[in-house]
Each structure stands twice: as C-alpha cells, then as structure tokens.
C-alpha cells in the first residue's frame, strides 16, 4: 500500500468520505477494537479516532481510513485490515491536538504502511 493511500479510502469505499461513521463498531481481523468516536481529515490525512472502551483501558486509537477493508452499513460496523495487536501497537494517541499534528500523523502512517499486506475482504 502506498504511504499516501493509507490516508485515503480504497476506491470501492470512496463513498465513505461523505458518510458519518461515528458510532460504527470497528473490527480487526481477530476481534472487536471499539467504536468510531469521530473522524477527521487534517493535512489530507483522513483518519478515525476509535474509542476502545475497556479493551485498552479506555484509551482511544487513531486509525487511518486506508486500513478499512469492509463496511456493513446495515450493521453499522467496519473491518480494518489489521489485527487487534497491530492496532494496539500503533503510535500512542494521547490528545486531540495530535489529530492535527503532521509529525504525529506521519508516524502513524509510517507504522501502518510497514504492516504486512493483507487481502481485503468483500463487503
């Protein structure tokens, strides 16, 4: 996956750019991560802030939209193309100001870009 595409929806999911995903359940390939708390697009780097609930001790995670592999609008859930451990190991999200920090967003993009490629699921 090209580094800049990590911040863009896959071509078959481009309609999501106009959709509010707040409240959608976020699933990894091996289980639930949490739910979308909000979405943002700063510096052309589209991403979701995911509330993990008690899974990661109430921590939120920042997930680039390019990791979205499938969406089920009827069930209000989306699946990302990584595991729970990979999402948890991403650069730590601490404050909302980081969603506007190009250096932090670049570090997140670099991390996700280095993950092993996976097949996208139909959805």
Short key terms for the protein model shown above:
alpha+beta, SH3 type barrels, six-stranded mixed sheet, 2 helices, 15% helix, globular
Taking the alpha carbons of the first and last residues, their distance comes to 19 Å
Order of helices and strands: EEEEEEHH
Work out the helicity level: 10-25%
**What number of domains?**
1
Describe the largest sheet: 6 strands, mixed
As a percent range, the share of strand residues is 25-35%
CATH topology category name: SH3 type barrels
Describe the overall structure.
- The chain is of the alpha+beta class and 123 residues long.
- It has one domain (3-112): Roll (SH3 type barrels).
- It has two helices and six strands.
- The chain has a six-stranded mixed beta sheet.
- A hairpin with a 2-residue loop joins strand 1 and strand 2 (31-42).
- The longest helix is centred in the last third of the chain and has 13 residues, at 102-114.
- The two termini are 19 Å apart.
- The relative contact order is 0.22.
- The mean pLDDT is 88.
């Amino acid at each position: 996956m090209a580094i800049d595409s990590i911040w863009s929806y896959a071509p078959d999911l481009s309609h999501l750019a106009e959709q509010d995903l707040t409240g959608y359940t976020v699933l990894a390939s091996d289980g639930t991560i949490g739910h979308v708390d909000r979405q943002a697009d700063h510096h052309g780097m589209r991403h979701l802030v995911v509330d993990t609930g008690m899974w990661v001790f109430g921590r939120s995670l920042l997930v680039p939209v390019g990791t979205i592999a499938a969406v089920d609008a009827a069930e209000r859930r989306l699946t990302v193309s990584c595991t729970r451990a990979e999402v948890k190991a991403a650069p730590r999200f601490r404050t909302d100001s980081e969603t506007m920090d190009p250096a932090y967003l670049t570090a997140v993009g670099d991390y996700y870009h280095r993950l092993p490629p996976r097949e996208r699921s139909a959805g």
